[in-house]
Structures are given as C-alpha cells and as structure tokens.
C-alpha cells in the first residue's frame, strides 16, 4: 500500500511529502536534498523579501551593535546575529509577519516587538517570544533607569569593546576636560549579557521575577517553592546576600582599580553617592597632592566631600539609547 | 493444533512473565495464547492515559489487580502545560470500581485526582493495598482521610511531590487503631502538622513499616520518638532537620539513629543544620541512597558527610556541594550509580557557588558505575563532555542543564555539538538524554546517527533548522518520547517523518515553528495519532494557516479524539475542517 504523497502549499522551496517510513529511498533523498539545500549555512534560494528585511534591520541595528560584530555572538533566540544574517531558516516568507504578532509570554510593558523580529535571520527565528520575553524585560528595566554597572574595561575611552554589557559607571574628573560623567553603557539586549558571562565579566542580574523564561531552568514547582522558603530562612541566618543582590562595578576615571557595590543595600541615591564617595576617597586623596602626609588626612574628608558633591565629580550613566543621563532623575525603585 | 497444553499449564508458565513487553509478545503468538494471557494479566501499565479508553482496557484484561498510569506530558512539571489540560483519572476509577472489585494497586503520575476519586477508591476496592500519587494534583487532605479510614489493608500510601490542598493534618488520625498493615508512608509533600501522637501510635503499631517519609512540619526533637518505634525502617525521610542546638536533642537523635540498623535510604533533611549532622553518622556506612536536595548545608559539611557513606549508590544534592565536595564524593563513593545536582539559586545571574563542569568530570572519573546523571551548572565545555563520555561509556541517563539558555563552550565559545556528540557516540546504551547550551543541527546529526537506544530526548533552545528534527526522527530507532521547546523546527521534518510518530508514545513541541496547516494535515492523514494544538490565543482557525501554533502534543492512540478537552485545545482530524467552519 503506497502512502499518499502530499505537497504543502506555501513552502516555496521544496515539496514536502507525507510518507511512511518504508517509503522509497528516492522520496527520502529528494526531500533530504531539498532540506539540505536550503538549510545549511548560506541559503541562497530564499525570496528577496527575506533578504531585504534582513538588511534593513541589520542596518538599523548596526549602530547599536557595531562592536558586537567583532565578537563571537552567542545571542539568545530571537536576537540579531550579524554572523548569521546570511543564513536563513527553512521558513516561508509568509511567516515573517505572523511571528511578530504572537508574544507568547505576557510582556511586561507592552514592549514585545523589537524590530529584529521581522528578520528571518537564520537559526533563531523560530524562537518564541518567551525567550524574547527573557531579554525584553531587561530592556524595559533599562528604560526605567534601573541601570546596571559593568566593567568598563581599562580605559574610559574604550568601554564598549570586549563584549561588555550593562552600564559602565565611572567617576570622571571634570577638570580633565571630558564631560564629567559616569560613563555607562546599556546594551539593548540580553544576548550580550550572555556573552559577557561567557567572557567571565560580571554582568548584573536583573531581578529574577522579571527575567525568567517560562519553565526554565527546568525545575519542578515543588522544589522551587521549597528552595524559596529555605533560602529566605537562610538569608536571615547566614547574612549572605540573597538571590536579589545586585552587584555592579563602578569605575572612577584614573583609578587603578574598580570597585563593586550592591545596589540593593541602598535605598536612595544619596546613600549610593555617599557610599561611592567613601569608596573612592582613597583615589581622590592621592590626587590631592603628591606628598600624602598624615596631616593632609584630616583635611581630606572635607576636601573629598567638596570634590564629590560640589564641583569635581558627578554621577552619570549612559542608558540604552546612548544618552548620558544624570543620576538621580528617575525614582530609585 | 498438533498438541495443546492445558490452559492452566500455560497460565502457570505465563505467571512468571512480569514485564509487559514479554506479555505483549506472548499475546501475539496465536489466538489461544492471546486469550489465555489476557485472562491472567494482573498488572497493566498505561504510559499515556489518552492512548486508550477504560472500556478497551477492561474488555481485554478482565482480571487486573494493579494498574499504573501516566497523564500529563513531562513538561507539565515546568509549567508549560496550561491549567485544565486534562488527565482526569475519575473516568478510570469509576469504570474500574465496577470491573475490578479486587483491584489492589493504583499508581498514577501527573494526573488529576479528586477527593471524589479517593473516596471511590477507598470504598470500591476491598483489598486495596497500594496508592502512589506522583506529581498529581486536585485532591485535598479530606481525600486522604477517606483512604486512611476505609482501606483496611492499606500497605502503601505515597504522595511523592503531589500538590495537595492541605486543609489540616487531621487526616492521619483517620487511620483506625486496628490498622497495622502499613509498609510505606510518604507524606513529605504536605504542609500541615499532623497529630504527632497519632503518628507515633500509627508507626508503633505497624511492625512492617519499612518506609517513612515525614513532612517538614515534624520537628527534629520528636524524630527519635518515631525512630525508636520503628527501628526496622529501611527508608527514612526526616522532617525539618533544624532546631536550636541542644546537647540532649543531639544525643537522643544519635541514639535513635544508631538503633536503625537497616536504614539504607535517607531523605528530607530540610533546613539541615551542620551541628546535627554527626547524629546520623552511625547510619552513613549503610546508606545506599541519600537525598540532600533540600538541605542547605555548605560544601565542607557536605564533603564530610558523603565521605562517611562508602556504599552510596544514589546521591541527590544541591550545588552547595561544589566541585570540592564532588571530589570527595568521587574519592569515597565507588559504588555511585546516580548523581543529581540541583541549583540552589537557579534564577540568580551570577554563580553563587563554585560548581563547574569539573565536578562532574571528577565524578565521572572516580565512580566507575556512574550511569545516571542530572546536573545543573552554569558552564560547560566540549572538552569536559568528551572526557565524561570517554570515562563513562556505561552512561544510561544523561541530563545536563546549563542554566543560561544557549550557553556555548565557555572556553572556546563554540557550540557544544562535539561534546554531546561524544556522549552519544560513546554511551551506546544511552536511554535518556536532555540537552542544553548552544547547539546547532550538527548535534542532532550525531544523535540520529549514534543514539540507537535512546528512548527519551529533551531539547530546549537548540538547533538551526528542520534538519535537526529530521535527524532525530529518522535516526533514533528506539525513540519513544520527544519533547522540544523553543527550537526552530517547523513543518517539513514533522511531515516527512509522520509515520515515525506512530512508533512513539508522544511528541511535545512548544514555541517552535510548526504551522497550523501542517498540524491539520498531519491530523487528517494520521488517524491513529491525536494531533492536539494547544493555543491560548484563541482558535487557530482565526489565524492564517501558516501561523505557528503555540504548543503541539501528538500521541498515538486507539481511543480516538479526546472528549474532555478544555477550550484551548483543538484536535486535528478529518472532521476538524467541519468542526471549525
């Protein structure tokens, strides 16, 4: 009994046959070759619609992703992957539009559609928005001013290389001529964070409730709930930071090393800035004068305060749109 | 026939066949063997409650004494199956209450069980002995009270990780005073405190009690009371293992443990405090199974503990054990067969413990019998996986969860295809595999080519194209269960391998790229499959045919389409075109 062969409408590339596993090798190889031709790297047969969609979005995102092009990209599904733009998944072009319409995870702020979604960029196009939901809430958090701090790299001038995600916070001396700002970088995307983690840099975590992909990591509810209660108890006992600790790296212009602060231990900007003051006081002391005699230390406190509060230093950060923002405008929460 | 054995002789011979596979084979020999076998089959296992109806089962096997059944897809454990999906056991209980009055055992997994079911069970089956509800839900402690009160010969009551609405601990007091038959009691998933004196008396009057798993509410200082009444225990799950340290509690506990000379398995240990750990050292040398996955103790104490358990065969632990603890494990526990390491902080972005791929490598080197692994970690490399594969060709179950989706080899930043490829090439008896990390279609080619004994495969955030799925469906000859989430697999591979789906128990695909049109086609052309589209966005007919469905569950069945579906599930079959017009 020969199995029926059926073509599928809408797939321009090859006919897919419905067949029993005992079907002839011919059919199988025909389909396989159909599959192979179109699936592996460097698909060329896709419609022009796909390519144009890709290039437009790639351009649009290039300005945000410049430096990512020089790195190995390990983005999350749904992310732009410049290396892979030329690869197209075996999808009909008709699917392009539909994909945008279905956020599969209720997105937090209605920010569910990045322009990148229109792209049939190779491998990850099939991913659901649950994974985009993984990355997007982070974007929304950025826009709310919940900045994250990250390693700036060594120089203030080149903070963006090396796959840094998050914000670089630096105290810069106004007198140095550069804009007195804490340079901060906020990447538009979570994939970079994934990148950074691979590189061993210390990216910040987004508050857990906002960043979870549904059902991932795969842990049973019973275990999750038990852990939650257990860790709550332990936090009180051990005093070690719970899963909510939000450590960020802060760098000061000209300082020989960076510091780390836990944003969660502060409840206002004032607390944060005074803590940062104290942390970086040693550097300012050094800058005050060459001698470093003990008598200076008495005065240094006031001088430091003047330096930090008054004229010399301000706290700023750069948000995801690439704008320098003064710390303090957005409510702390 | 040239000769014929008397039926009784054949029946006697068949009674030695325990496995379903053997019995099924025997049934196919000839009609008379089929008849004889079906009248003497006492145990049935139904892997998917929707693959068959109660009537069909009862008609074929009229004398069943023990039934085991599974309901929801495995991914229901991770909240991927919406509430109200199904797996109601009531129709089965109802039918069996009439057909199998001598039923003794019911074991259910991932099914919805109501108090009504439990009451019906307790009243319908006079010799009822064993009730195991694993990851079930839908019932309250009132249902448990019916079981306790009415099942006169109850031997086993096991509520493994079920979600029970805990109205009160009073249910335990419903065990009548004359109930002395308990062999196994697992109430670890319950929240409420039971009457301790009732528990004490129950334990005291059941001389055959071998397994006792308490819930967290049982205080540590009361544990010795129970242990002293049940020194014959083989498996113990403690209650909370935490209390303000007092020497008298400690010495009572030590003494109580030392009396339990048969103890082989230990679990519970919620909130364990290091100071109380030495109290159990006396039982450690005899332990073959240790579940520390709820114990938040740190590496040094964990290392010390496992070093005392040279006969350990199974260890479940949190990642607090760290690489150093796993090294101690590898040194001390040469009989280890199964290791599960769970994450203590799965949602934190930064590692909170020093547990890396090295821990697993070390155990794979040091434990020659290691065959079953579940490992959550934050970094992995191809080199590590290749080493593990080389060390442990006897691996049967390998489930690796790298917490960050699509994490590459952290050293080379390449995909982990090579590593997993090494696993399937080397471990020829591999039956279960869960993948994670950055993976391309290549890994699926390896799997399809080499994993010939693979029965269950779990895939998440992996692959590049339909070719990946095609490799698996066309290559994995023993595949029974395939579950996929968030992968770019679409129509082509599925349709090209439609016949394969009839050889499997089930296929789950969520957040992939299978179009509604393809689902309809599959459903229409494969009458022995139920192709169920789960879509909470509304009827798939309201969207274009090329639109991908949210979730898809396909399973083979002789029961026809489901009749108990909620409004977000649609079965694709010949009539579906008519249904939705």
TrEMBL record, chain A:
Residues 187-208 are annotated as: Disordered. PROSITE patterns: PB1 (PS51745). Its main location: nucleus. It is found in: Nucleus. Residues 198-207 have a biased composition (Polar residues). InterPro entries: AUX/IAA_dom, AUX_IAA, PB1-like. Residues 245-333 form the PB1 domain. Keywords: Auxin signaling pathway, Nucleus, Repressor, Transcription, Transcription regulation. Aux/IAA proteins are short-lived transcriptional factors that function as repressors of early auxin response genes at low auxin concentrations. Belongs to the Aux/IAA family. This is Auxin-responsive protein. It comes from Penstemon davidsonii.
Automatic annotation (TrEMBL), chain B:
Residues 5-46 form the F-box domain. The keyword Methyltransferase does not apply. Pfam families: F-box_5, Transp_inhibit. It comes from the Eukaryota. SUPFAM superfamilies: RNI-like. CDD domains: F-box_AtTIR1-like. InterPro entries: COI1_F-box, F-box_dom, Leu-rich_rpt_Cys-con_subtyp, LRR_dom_sf, Transp_inhibit. The keyword Acyltransferase does not apply. Keywords: Auxin signaling pathway. PANTHER family: F-BOX/TPR REPEAT PROTEIN POF3, PROTEIN TRANSPORT INHIBITOR RESPONSE 1. This is F-box domain-containing protein. It comes from Penstemon davidsonii.
């Amino acid at each position: 009994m020969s199995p029926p062969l059926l073509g599928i409408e809408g797939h321009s590339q090859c006919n897919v046959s419905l067949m029993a596993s005992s079907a002839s090798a011919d059919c199988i190889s025909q389909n396989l070759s159909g599959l192979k031709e179109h699936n592996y790297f460097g698909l060329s047969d896709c419609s022009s619609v796909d390519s144009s969609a890709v290039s437009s979005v790639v351009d649009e995102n290039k300005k945000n992703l410049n430096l990512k092009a020089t790195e190995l990209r390990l983005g999350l599904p749904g992310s732009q992957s410049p290396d892979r733009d030329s690869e197209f998944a075996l999808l009909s072009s008709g699917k392009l539009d539909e994909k945008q319409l279905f956020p599969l995870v209720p997105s937090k702020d209605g920010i569910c559609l990045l322009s990148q979604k229109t792209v049939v960029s190779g491998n990850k196009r099939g991913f659901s928005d649950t994974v985009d939901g993984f990355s997007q809430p982070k974007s929304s958090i950025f826009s709310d001013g919940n900045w994250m701090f990250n390693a700036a790299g060594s120089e203030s001038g080149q903070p963006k290389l090396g796959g840094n995600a998050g914000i670089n916070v630096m105290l810069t001396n106004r007198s140095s001529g550069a804009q007195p700002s804490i340079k901060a970088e906020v990447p538009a995307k979570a994939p970079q964070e994934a990148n950074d983690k691979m590189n061993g840099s210390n990216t910040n975590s987004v508050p857990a409730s906002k960043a979870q992909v549904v059902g991932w990591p795969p842990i049973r509810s019973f275990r999750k709930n038990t852990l939650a209660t257990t860790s709550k108890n332990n936090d009180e006992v051990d005093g070690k930071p719970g899963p909510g600790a939000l450590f960020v790296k802060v760098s000061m212009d000209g300082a020989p090393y960076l510091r780390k602060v836990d944003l969660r231990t502060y409840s206002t900007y004032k607390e944060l800035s005074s803590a940062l003051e104290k942390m970086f006081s040693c550097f300012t002391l050094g800058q005050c004068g060459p001698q470093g005699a003990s008598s200076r230390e008495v005065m240094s406190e006031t001088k430091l305060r003047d330096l930090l509060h008054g004229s010399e230093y301000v706290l700023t950060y750069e948000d995801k749109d690439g704008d320098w923002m003064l710390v303090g405008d957005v409510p702390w929460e | 026939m040239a000769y014929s054995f008397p039926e009784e002789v054949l029946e006697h011979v068949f009674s030695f066949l325990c496995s379903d596979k053997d019995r099924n084979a025997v049934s196919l020999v000839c009609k008379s063997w089929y008849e004889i076998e079906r009248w003497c089959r006492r145990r049935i296992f139904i892997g998917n409650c929707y693959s068959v109806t109660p009537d069909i089962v009862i008609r074929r096997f009229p004398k069943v004494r023990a039934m085991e059944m599974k309901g929801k897809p495995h991914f229901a454990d991770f909240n991927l199956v919406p509430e109200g999906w199904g797996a109601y056991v009531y129709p089965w209980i109802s039918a069996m209450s009439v057909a199998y009055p001598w039923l003794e055992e019911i074991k259910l997994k991932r099914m919805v069980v109501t108090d009504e079911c439990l009451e019906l069970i307790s009243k319908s089956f006079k010799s009822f002995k064993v009730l195991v509800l694993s990851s079930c839900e839908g019932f309250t402690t009132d249902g448990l009270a019916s079981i306790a009160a009415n099942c006169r010969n109850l031997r086993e009551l096991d509520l493994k990780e079920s979600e029970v609405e805990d109205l009160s601990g009073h249910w335990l007091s419903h065990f009548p005073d004359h109930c002395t038959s308990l062999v196994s009691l697992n109430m670890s998933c319950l929240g409420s405190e039971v009457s301790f004196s009732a528990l004490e008396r129950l334990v005291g009057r059941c001389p055959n009690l071998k397994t006792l798993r308490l819930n967290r509410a049982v205080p540590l200082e009361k544990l010795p009371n129970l242990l002293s009444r049940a020194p014959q225990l083989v498996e113990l799950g403690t209650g909370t293992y935490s209390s303000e340290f007092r020497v008298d509690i400690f010495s009572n506990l030590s003494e109580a443990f030392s009396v339990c000379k048969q103890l082989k398995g230990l679990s519970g240990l919620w909130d364990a405090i290091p100071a109380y750990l030495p109290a159990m050292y006396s039982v450690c040398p005899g332990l073959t199974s240790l579940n520390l996955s709820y114990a938040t103790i740190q590496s040094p104490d964990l290392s010390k503990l496992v070093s005392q358990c040279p006969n350990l065969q199974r260890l479940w632990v949190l990642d607090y054990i760290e690489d150093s603890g796993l090294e101690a494990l590898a040194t001390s526990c040469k009989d280890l067969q199964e290791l599960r390491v769970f994450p203590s902080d799965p949602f934190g972005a930064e590692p909170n413990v020093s547990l890396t791929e090295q821990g697993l490598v070390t155990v794979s080197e040091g434990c020659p019998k290691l065959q079953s692994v579940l490992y959550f970690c934050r970094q992995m490399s191809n080199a590590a996986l290749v080493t593990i594969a080389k060390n442990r060709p006897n691996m049967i179950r390998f489930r690796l969860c790298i917490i960050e989706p699509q994490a590459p080899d952290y050293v080379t930043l390449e995909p982990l295809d090579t590593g997993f490829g090494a696993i399937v090439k080397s471990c020829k008896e591999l039956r279960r595999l869960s993948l994670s990390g950055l993976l391309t279609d290549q890994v699926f080619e390896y799997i399809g080519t080499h994993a010939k004994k693979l029965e269950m495969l779990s895939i998440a955030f992996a692959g590049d194209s339909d070719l990946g799925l095609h490799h698996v469906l066309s290559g994995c000859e023993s595949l029974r269960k395939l579950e996929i989430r968030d992968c770019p697999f679409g129509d082509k591979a599925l349709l090209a391998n439609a016949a394969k789906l009839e050889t499997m128990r089930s296929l789950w695909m969520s957040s992939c790229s299978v179009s509604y049109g393809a689902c309809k086609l599959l459903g229409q052309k494969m009458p022995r499959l139920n192709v169920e589209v789960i879509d909470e966005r509304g009827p798939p007919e309201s969207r274009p045919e090329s639109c991908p469905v949210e979730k898809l569950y396909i399973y083979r069945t002789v029961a026809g389409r489901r009749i108990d579906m909620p409004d977000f599930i649609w079965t694709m079959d010949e009539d579906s075109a008519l249904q939705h017009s």
